């Protein structure tokens, strides 16, 4: 949530303090849930499809749209806003967010943004996480007296679990800003989108096709991804890395060719 021109261009550590409170009686209540581009993560979709008791395909069809990033050609799912003039989020009512306890990671973080820097060190590349504030003119939350550190805010909003589930996928997301990316063709965009967001379809692809005859996946992983969608989404990142030829994250079986020809 938050438009780029509202980002305060200053990096902060977890210990940085700020004053903020968002509550139902504030005059800007729900103003931030309109006309906004909210990028969804794989774990957001897993939580929301479970909450709404629908399939991943139904969720993506009803509540999201695919956006192809101009620079990287990566496909991302974006939360749909209403086509009416108020352009409000599909989950917004006068009483607030109807899926609040399962709201997406970007809604949880607001008004704190999160960034990652890749750094080279003697022991190889490392990642440095940093935070920044989003200050939008319509948001009166900063005028409230409640004090936080970024760390206590994140804990209160329960974002750590989302970060943990999305960690590998967020590395793919970071790549979208790298210069000189190879453009993904439509087939690869479909594979990227499916393995990121459409877990029911990806599950069928892994378990009801020749996938396990072609790729050498150990039994423990097979059982984990069969029964746990979060693990399946993490495995999805390996599949995407393989498809995008970023690394040999999957090993092809010696006799794979006889299945591939089918
Ligand atoms: S205080 Fe800010 S985050 Fe809370 S409802 Fe108002 S605009 Fe949204
Ligand atoms: S999901 Fe909830 S918190 Fe996020 S924009 Fe929609 S109504 Fe607001």
Task: Describe the protein's architecture and organization.
By secondary structure, the chain is an alpha+beta fold. Helices cover 38% and strands 15% of the residues. A hairpin with a 2-residue loop joins β6 and β7. α5 runs parallel beside α10, α6 packs antiparallel against α10 and α9 crosses α10. The longest helix is centred in the middle third of the chain and has 16 residues. It is globular. The mean pLDDT is 92. Bound molecules: iron/sulfur cluster (2 copies). One iron/sulfur cluster (SF4) binds next to loops.
Would you tell me the overall average pLDDT? 92
How far is it from the N-terminal to the C-terminal residue, by CA? 45 Å
Spatial arrangement of strands, main beta sheet: 1-8
Helix content: 25-40%
Main sheet specs? 2 strands, antiparallel
**Integer count of domains:** 2
Strand content: 15-25%
Any low-confidence stretches, pLDDT <50, length ≥5?
none
Which ligands appear in the coordinates?
iron/sulfur cluster
State the helix count: 11
> What's the number of extended β-strand segments?
8
Provide the gyration radius in Å: 20 Å
Give, in order, the helices and strands. EHHEEEEHEEEHHHHHHHH
């Amino acid at each position: 949530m938050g438009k780029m021109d509202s980002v305060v261009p200053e990096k902060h550590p977890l210990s940085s303090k700020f004053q903020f409170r968002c509550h139902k009686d504030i005059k800007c209540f729900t103003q931030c849930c309109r006309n906004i581009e909210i990028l969804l993560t794989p774990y957001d979709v897993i939580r929301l499809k479970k909450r709404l008791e629908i399939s991943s395909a139904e969720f993506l069809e009803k509540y999201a749209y695919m956006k192809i990033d101009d620079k990287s050609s990566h496909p991302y799912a974006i939360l749909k806003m209403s086509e009416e003039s108020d352009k409000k989020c599909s989950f917004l009512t006068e009483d607030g967010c109807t899926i609040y306890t399962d709201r997406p990671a970007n809604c949880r973080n607001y008004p704190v943004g999160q960034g990652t820097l890749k750094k080279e060190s003697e022991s190889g590349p490392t990642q440095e996480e940093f935070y920044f504030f989003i200050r939008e003119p319509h948001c009166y939350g900063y005028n409230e007296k409640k004090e936080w550190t970024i760390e206590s805010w994140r804990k209160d909003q329960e974002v750590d679990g989302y970060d943990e589930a999305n960690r590998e996928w967020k590395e793919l997301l970071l790549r979208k800003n790298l210069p000189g990316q190879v453009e993904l063709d439509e087939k690869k965009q479909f594979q990227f989108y499916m393995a990121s967001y459409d877990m029911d379809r990806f599950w069928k692809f892994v378990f009801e096709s020749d996938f396990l005859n072609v790729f050498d996946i150990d039994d423990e992983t097979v059982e984990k991804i069969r029964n746990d969608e979060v693990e399946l989404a993490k495995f999805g990142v390996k599949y995407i890395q393989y498809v995008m030829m970023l690394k040999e994250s999957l090993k092809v079986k010696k006799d794979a060719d006889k299945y591939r020809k089918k």
